[in-house]
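Subject: sequence -> structure tokens, single chain

Hey, anyone have a minute? Need the predicted structure for the following. Not urgent.
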Amino acid sequence: MQFETWLIFLAASAGLSLSPGPNGLLALTHGAMHGSRKTSFTILGGALGFVLVIALCMFGIGALIQSSVHWLTALKWLGGLYLVWLGIQVWRSPAISVVVSERIEAKGWRLFRQGLLSAATNPKCLLFSFLPQFIDPQRSLLQQFAVVAATFAATEIVTEFALASGAHRIRPWLARVGRRFNQACGGVFVAIGAALPLRM
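Reply:
Had a minute. Here:
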């Protein structure tokens, strides 16, 4: 993957991690309920879930590319359209609201499992339909998977840990400016979705 392509993917990953979604909300809620240290289990489970989904998507895409390069072109356009649709949904989504009455005890394994299942069934995972736009069929798919998975997992871990660590401070801020923040993230998705297929 070229460096400039990686930068675009990093920007898309950061925007996706910051946009409203089940894993971010789970990290925020668990951070308020259990503290950031315990919520690390939730975050690591989510990261593993995303890596597994990326692996399934990328190697499935690789199999399609081997059968016909035209599949790659079609997937790039579908991915771009999906990203535009996702941007519109994020733009229209309300600010995240979390209400926590008290802290409760929870085992690390239970939190890890919740994070894993949330990521594996997360609607955001559909965003990986735009992964073909970052795949170079002339390069090793395994190496590209390592770069993509590590980048996205790291972005999710950093973002969710920040949410968990500042849960009590972030919640009022989200209630105040969350709607405008969602609109900014949605606008970025629409712009990337419209521009990426044209780079082919």
